[in-house]
Each structure stands twice: as C-alpha cells, then as structure tokens.
Amino acid sequence: MKKDIILVGASGRMGQEIEKIINSETEFRILYRVSSSFDNDAENRKSIQDIDLGGREPMVIDFSTAGIFGSVVNWCRENKVPLVSGTTGLSNEDFVNLENAGKTIPILWSSNMSVGINVLRKLISQLAVIKDFDFQVEDFHHNKKIDAPSGTAITLQNDLINVLDKDLPQVVSVRAGGIFGIHKINAVSNEEHIILEHRAMNRSVFANGAVFAAKWLKDKPAGCYSMMDALQ
Ligand SMILES: NC(=O)c1ccc[n+]([C@@H]2O[C@H](COP(=O)([O-])OP(=O)(O)OC[C@H]3O[C@@H](n4cnc5c(N)ncnc54)[C@H](OP(=O)(O)O)[C@@H]3O)[C@@H](O)[C@H]2O)c1
Predict the structure, then answer these.
(1) Helix, strand, coil shares, percent, the chain, to 5
(2) d(CA 204, CA 20)
(3) pTM of structure
C-alpha cells in the first residue's frame, strides 16, 4: 500500500516538482497539499493545523517558508508524523525546536537535498591541510529566493569553520535571474586558487533528493537526521 504524504508548500516551485515525482512513482501518494493560497477541500488545506488525520499515518514533506516551520514541526510532533524538510532561513530557535521534536519523531532536515552538495561537504575535511589559505564561500540563486545567504551556504560555512578552526569572512550572496543554485568554496594563497563548486542544473535534483530522503526516513526511529545520514 502507498504511504500517504502531506506536502507543505505544495503550490511553490519545490512543491510542484516534488508532486510530479510522487505522482510518477509507486511508493507514495499525496494525501493533502498545504499552501496558504489553497481552499480547504478534499485534497487541499490552507494550513497543516486544518488536517484531521482520522487514524491515518502519513509523512510530511515540507518545502515552504521559515515563518511556518515551527508550527509544522510542532504539528508533526503532536501527531507523531515523520517529517522531511528542506525549508531554509531558519532561526536558532527553529533548530532547537527541531532537536527537541527529534526526541519524539523521525525528522530529516537538510539545507540541500542534492547528492552533489553532500559529497562536496565530505570533501571539506580535506581542506584542513591548507588551513592558512584565505577562504570565501559564495552562493548564487534566482532572484525570487527569500533568504540570503542560502541555507546551503550557511551549512558549508559552518562545516569549514569546524574543519579549519578559524573565523571566516561572511558568505557572499548573489541573487540574479533564474539560477537554481550555485555554491563555491574558494581557497586562495599567494600562488594558488582552489575552487570547489557545485551547480544545480535543475530543481528536480532537490525534489528527487527529498523523495529519496522520505523513503529512507519512513521506518526510522525518532531522531534528527540529515541528508549525510541518508546517503551513507
Ligand atoms: N533543501 C533543499 O534542497 C532546497 C532546495 C530548494 C529550495 N529550498 C527551500 O525550500 C523552501 C521553498 O522554496 P520554493 O522555491 O519552493 O519557494 P516558493 O516557490 O516561494 O514556495 C513556498 C511555498 O510555501 C507556501 N507558504 C508560504 N507561506 C505559507 C503559509 N503561511 N502557510 C502555508 N503555506 C505557505 C507557499 O504557498 P502560498 O504561496 O500559497 O502561500 C508556497 O507553496 C525555501 O525555504 C527554499 O530556500 C530548499
């Protein structure tokens, strides 16, 4: 039997990509779509709080906005529903809430659901040997993106700070046109310039990652997981 999915942010760029993937495969089906511009009807809800599960045991996939993230996490915790989320622009309070909810339900949050960025994150540990180089993280995204720096750039910056054990200059963010997502780590000495770069060539790379993450998470015990865990 197909596992029911509640898709939060269903009307958005990511939500629409995820729905296409779910509709083309056999493991999941959409139970409800949630977006603030929807009316409450058979398959749609304005808010996750409007959903009555009536004994069903779905999962939530959330790609929406930081403003409702806390309420999505709380609803999932109260209803014992596993959550996959890629929503970015989160506050420290959101991350504390996420950690706490992970004691009750399985949660996978990742600032970037692509395989490539998670491979790039693993490469960052190699940079410890050039700790004395100057480092600069850059992110380039489409001009509709709300948050800057991107969640991925913050993740890469934090990984670098941990590996290099030194402060780094602020991330440089460019918002232009329709760029799906480019992230660069520059490491520069007087004689060399290393660039680790990841380019998302479409939005479905993130959507496929999110559906992969949901398949991985669905039978996991309570806990806070990342895409790095799912890809091991
Ligand atoms: N982790 C990753 O791999 C990854 C990749 C790409 C994007 N993202 C992140 O995913 C999120 C969504 O990105 P996007 O490009 O799809 O954004 P988007 O096109 O702006 O979509 C946002 C969605 O959230 C819904 N929403 C906003 N406020 C709401 C509210 N108060 N109640 C219910 N629904 C609400 C919007 O619906 P209405 O318009 O109807 O309100 C819309 O469906 C962003 O945080 C983005 O940074 C993550």
Answers:
(1) 35, 25, 40
(2) 9
(3) 0.95
Same domain, 90 and 121: no
For the CA of 64, the closest atom of ligand 1 is: 24
Residues with a known catalytic role = 141, 145
206-228 tens-digit pLDDT: 999 999 999 999 999 999 999 99
Query: Based on the structure, what is the number of domains in the chain?
Result: 2
Same-domain pairing of 192 and 209: no
In terms of domains, do 104 and 68 share one?
yes
Cα(137) to centroid(ligand 1), Å: 24
Provide the residue range defining the domain that includes 21.
3-113+204-230
CA 84 – CA 88 distance, rounded (Å)? 13
Sheet of 182-188: strands edge to edge?
172-175, 134-141, 182-188, 193-199
- Spatial distance between the Cα atoms of 112 and 50, rounded to a whole number of angstroms: 28
Residue type, 206: F
- The length of the chain is 232
